[in-house]
Design goal:
single chain, mainly alpha, 0% strand
Length: 241
């Protein structure tokens, strides 16, 4: 566990202390704030719960995009700078290396979500919302963001440069987001399969509305586990090349 924490702390500190990390954090908050003001906080009177639902929808999308840019550096940058050999020759296992990188991404995700807390707070100025809906909504965004970070970690583990990692992670993430479109044009049983795989449809909507979705929790955790396992296997395969 100490090895995982060592990598996570090292990567997180290096990320937030560089211009790249500050730019991603700043742009993410700026885009999320602009979208929240333009789409959710409109001049037209709306129910506070509906405004909060739109906030979580917008924040979920922004978080997925930020996760792609955050994880593109995980292993790909180590290869580009030649420091990957330090990880491969260390006493840490591939599982520890992957989990350390992943934990670093989760720390960034938690920081990002914490900095968005003022937006739900703005709803209290002219309306009333449930603290439970806020908590459950943030849980859903965190779970979906964690799945996106796992996808990005795997993409970085199999890529030799950051650009390739970015493209692979973006394509897979977009696929999971757009699965709901495929489910509408396909026939059973594929219709149900793609509807189940869609990030923003069946799995995430209950969280937006303040309802804990056990099926969604299992889904996002399963996606995270699968891609982290793939990342670990990829590192093991590369070590024996």
């Amino acid at each position: 566990m100490s090895g995982i924490w060592l990598i996570a702390r090292r990567d997180f500190s290096a990320f937030i202390n560089t211009w790249w990390g500050c730019v991603i954090l700043s742009l993410t908050l700026l885009i999320d704030g602009v979208l929240f003001q333009a789409v959710a906080m409109t001049a037209t009177p709306r129910y506070s719960a509906d405004v909060l639902t739109d906030f979580f929808f917008l924040t979920g999308g922004v978080v997925l995009i930020a996760g792609v840019f955050t994880t593109m550096r995980s292993f790909a940058e180590e290869r580009q700078t030649g420091t990957m050999v330090l990880i491969e020759s260390s006493p840490l296992s591939e599982t520890q290396a992957v989990m350390g990188k992943y934990l670093s991404g989760l720390m960034f995700l938690a920081l990002l979500l914490g900095l968005t807390a003022y937006m739900p707070g703005m709803i209290f100025v002219n309306g009333k919302i449930s603290e439970q809906q806020i908590a459950v909504g943030y849980l859903g965004v965190f779970l979906m963001g964690a799945a996106g970070i796992a996808i990005g970690t795997w993409a970085s583990a199999i890529s030799r440069n950051q650009l390739l990692s970015l493209v692979i992670a973006a394509v897979i993430t977009v696929f999971f987001v757009l699965c709901w479109m495929l489910s509408r044009v396909l026939d059973p049983p594929f219709k149900g399969l793609f509807a189940y795989m869609a990030f923003f449809d069946k799995q995430f909507q209950p969280f937006q509305e303040g309802r804990i979705n056990t099926e969604g929790i299992v889904f996002f955790v399963s996606v995270s586990f699968a891609f982290l396992l793939l990342a670990t296997r990829s590192l093991i395969a590369r070590r024996w090349e």
